[in-house]
Amino acid sequence: xxxxxxxxxxxxxxxxxxxxxxxxxxxxxxxxxxxxxxxxxxxxxxxxxxxxx
Length: 53
Known about the structure:
This protein is α+β, with helices and mostly antiparallel strands. About 50% of the residues lie in helices and about 20% in strands. The protein has three helices and two strands, in the order αβαβα. The chain is globular, with a radius of gyration of 12 Å. The mean pLDDT is about 95.
């Protein structure tokens, strides 16, 4: 199992789009993901996510 430092080695140059319809969960998870990914974006539904892609 990888620890957070090992995960960061693989993800630090990646971008991620997190899709979640529950606002508080989306915001909290986005903040956590910012610790691991270079760019973190979020969307509240699949249609908005597809437009961002």
